[in-house]
From TrEMBL:
InterPro entries: FlgB. One of its GO terms (cellular component) is bacterial-type flagellum basal body, rod. This is Flagellar basal body rod protein FlgB. It comes from Syntrophus aciditrophicus (strain SB). It comes from the Bacteria. Keywords: Bacterial flagellum, Cell projection, Cilium, Flagellum. Structural component of flagellum, the bacterial motility apparatus. Part of the rod structure of flagellar basal body. The basal body constitutes a major portion of the flagellar organelle and consists of a number of rings mounted on a central rod. Belongs to the flagella basal body rod proteins family. It is found in: Bacterial flagellum basal body. GO terms for biological process: bacterial-type flagellum-dependent cell motility.
Amino acid sequence: MDFLFSKTIGILSGMLGFRSQRNKIILSNIANMDSPDYKPKDYVFKRDLSRAVADRGQLTLLKTDGKHLPADLNEISDDDFEVVETGKNVNMDTEMTHLAENHLRYNLTVEMLARKFKGLNTVLKETK
């Protein structure tokens, strides 16, 4: 069945989970905006991976230890993400921008997943 449901569906469903969790964190930031000493949080890849991507250098994927991050996107799980404090005060404009961006990306992922299933549906109908 793996040939029918390619890696794309796994990646897209993982992205839906990520976007959903990030939405909860952003809404928590907005809800706690007036709480004293509250620092906003974000849901991101663990620091090692985000730092490697931020460097924009060549990232050679060589897994020599079991503690290394996965080289295959299908191996990425909830354990590869973490909630981090951004270290700033809550800014309503910033949080609303993050919320809108996250919402658009969530909708894009849903649309891509729907198109994938529509394509599979078409293939199944044509083979009858």
